[in-house]
Design goal:
Length: about 220
Amino acid sequence: MSPTSLSLEHLQRPSSLKSEKAPAVFMFHGYGSNEEDLFSFASELPEELYVISVKAPYDLEPFGHAWYAINFDAEYGKWSDDEQAKTSRDKIVAFIDEACEAYGLDKENITLLGFSQGTILSYSVALSFPEKIKNVIALSGYINEGILIDGYSEKDYSNLNIYASHGQVDQVIPLEWAQKTPGFLDRLGIQHTYEEFPVGHGVSPQNFYSFREWLVERI
C-alpha cells in the first residue's frame, strides 16, 4: 500500500524486521512545519522501529502546516482552536489504525513522538486512548486538558510511559506550562520522566540522546 492511499500524508522508514510485526514510532511536527522536520531523527533511531512522520492536515499561508489554528487577537491575546485540535486528535487515532493495518505494525508497541503542537496532540491522543499507545516522547509541549476526551481520568494508564522535556529558555511555550506535566501525570498514575535542558524552543543533542536511550529501553 502506498503512503498516498492513507488518510494523512507521511514519510516512512521501514523496520529492519522482516518476519514479525514491527514496533512503530509516529512523529508529529510543530505549528508551521512539515513531515520532513522530525523525520531527520529517523536514521538515528533503532533499526527495528518502523518510523512514520506525519504531515498535519491544515495548510498555512504561505507554507507549512498545522494541527489546529492558533489565532493572535489584540483583545483576547493568543488562543488555540480546540475544536480543530480535537478533530486532528481523532484523525491521528484513525490514521494510526490504518497504518498498523497497511504496514503490518505491532499495535501493542506504538510510540508517539511530538514537538511543540505535535506534542500537545500526542498527549491528547495518548491520554484519551491509552489502550492504543505504549510510549510518548513529548518535546517542548504541554498538556491541554481541553482537548482530552470526557472521562479520560477513568482510563487505565498502567501500560503508558511518557518522556517529557522542555527548554529552560523556551520563548514559544513557557517553561511553567511544561512544569505542570509531572504533577498531572502523577495524579493519573502514569510512569514518566521529565527533563529540562538549557535551550530555547528546540531539541538539543543532549535531549535527543536522552530520549533515544529512554526509548531503546522501552521498545
